[in-house]
Design a protein that fits this description.
197 residues; alpha+beta; Alpha-Beta Plaits; four-stranded antiparallel β-sheet; two-stranded antiparallel ribbon; 6 strands; globular
């Protein structure tokens, strides 16, 4: 189908004028297609246990996502995963992009305020959307291999929703807020906006 602005009315959810290839930290949420519960299950913690937090049990597709998230720094030399959680129908993660040629090993004392610095031209520096789209493509490929080799349940039509949500993390305080949100997400699954029975 050809895109027609009179019919489709797609609005970008990206920050207008922002350079998503710049070095920054991002809180990202990516959902499964139609919010299908295929990545994990959330097991209730024991009420008698301290903090009785819920725990996430990854299904095979969730394990693929986890493996691919851990491999992001191998595929994208200037991107690291800070924290993430894989929920039944979405994942949240903090991606930190460094300028090309820099990274946590090259700059071990780097803090969130230093991420905005630029070094001029970045010919191989992919935008955040490039990283997410390549990540999605890789997970789809791996999932299809699992369907063929291990008889996994096929996904219906698509694995991922068309877009993703992101928030630019501006400072250390925000970074810690999002880390805490990720840590607490399983315990608050029943109140999560993506919760489906």
């Amino acid at each position: 189908m050809v895109y027609n602005s009179e019919i489709h009315h797609r609005r970008s959810i990206r920050l207008k004028g922002y350079d998503y290839s710049s070095a920054d930290a991002y809180f990202v949420t990516v959902c499964s297609y139609k919010k299908e519960l295929i990545f994990s299950s959330v097991r209730a913690g024991l009420a008698s246990a301290p903090n009785h937090n819920n725990s996430v049990i990854l299904k095979s597709p969730g394990k693929i996502i986890s493996n691919c998230l851990y491999k992001i720094p191998e595929r994208f030399k200037n991107v690291v995963i800070d924290e993430f959680v894989i929920m039944p129908n979405h994942f949240h993660g903090i991606l930190i992009k460094f300028d090309v040629g820099a990274g946590p090993c090259a700059c071990p004392d780097l803090n969130i305020e230093d991420l905005g610095a630029t070094t001029g031209s970045r010919p191989y520096n992919l935008s955040l959307s490039d990283v997410i789209e390549r990540f999605k493509s890789l997970t789809i490929k791996k999932y299809i291999e699992g369907i063929k080799m291990y008889d996994w349940q096929p996904f219906r039509g698509k694995l991922w929703q068309r877009n993703y949500y992101e928030r630019i993390i501006r400072n250390e305080k925000e970074l810690n807020i999002y880390r805490k949100y990720i840590e607490d997400n399983p315990s608050e699954w029943n109140e999560d906006e993506y919760f489906i029975l």
